[in-house]
């Protein structure tokens, strides 16, 4: 059975780390995001049943470089995270400019803790 590895990285090391795993034959599995006080992005890669995850935290103002030049299909994950969470992802190969989804509110999954408390009646 394969193993799962979580590696905390600095945002400035994202492209370097992704290029390394690309050259080692890893495939991109997913890019996920969660939000609380800021955004936590996780980039997941697979090779020979080993799941390697790069993770970092960022705010919505800090620029995150797109990895779509290395993994072309990353543009879908990146557009989704940009639109739904408000991540500031730059240089996406195909950038929908926040029109991937038809949604009634801007960045619906990025809420500050005070907004969550109001929404959940706390």
Relative strand content: 25-35%
Helix content: 10-25%
What's the name of the CATH homologous superfamily? NADH:ubiquinone oxidoreductase Nqo5 subunit
Distance between the termini: 43 Å
Strand order of the largest sheet: 1-4-3-2
Rg of Cα set: 15 Å
Task: Provide the number of structural domains.
Answer: 1
Uncertain ranges: 113-122
What is the H/E string?
EHEEEEHEH
Overall, the morphology is: globular
How would a textbook summarize the main sheet? 4 strands, mixed
> What's the CATH topology label?
Beta Polymerase, domain 2
Average residue pLDDT: 88
Describe the structure.
With about 120 residues, this protein is an alpha/beta fold. The protein has one domain (about 5-120): NADH:ubiquinone oxidoreductase Nqo5 subunit (Beta Polymerase, domain 2), CATH 3.30.460. It has three helices and six strands, in the order βαββββαβα. The strands form two sheets. A four-stranded mixed beta sheet has the order 1-4-3-2. A two-stranded parallel ribbon has the order 5-6. Strand 2 (about 25-35) and strand 3 (about 40-45) form a beta hairpin. It is globular, with a radius of gyration of 15 Å. The relative contact order is 0.17. Residues about 115-120 have low confidence and may be disordered.
């Amino acid at each position: 059975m394969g193993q799962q590895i979580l590696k905390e990285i600095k945002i400035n090391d994202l492209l370097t780390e992704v290029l390394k795993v690309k050259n080692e034959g890893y495939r991109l599995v997913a890019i996920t995001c969660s939000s609380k006080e800021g955004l936590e992005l996780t980039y997941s890669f697979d090779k020979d049943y080993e799941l390697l995850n790069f993770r970092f935290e960022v705010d919505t103002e800090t620029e995150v470089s797109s990895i779509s030049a290395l993994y072309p299909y990353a543009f879908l994950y990146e557009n989704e995270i940009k639109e739904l969470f408000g991540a500031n992802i730059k240089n996406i190969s195909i950038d929908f400019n926040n029109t991937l989804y038809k949604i009634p509110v801007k960045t619906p999954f990025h809420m500050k803790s005070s907004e969550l408390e109001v929404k959940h009646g706390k």
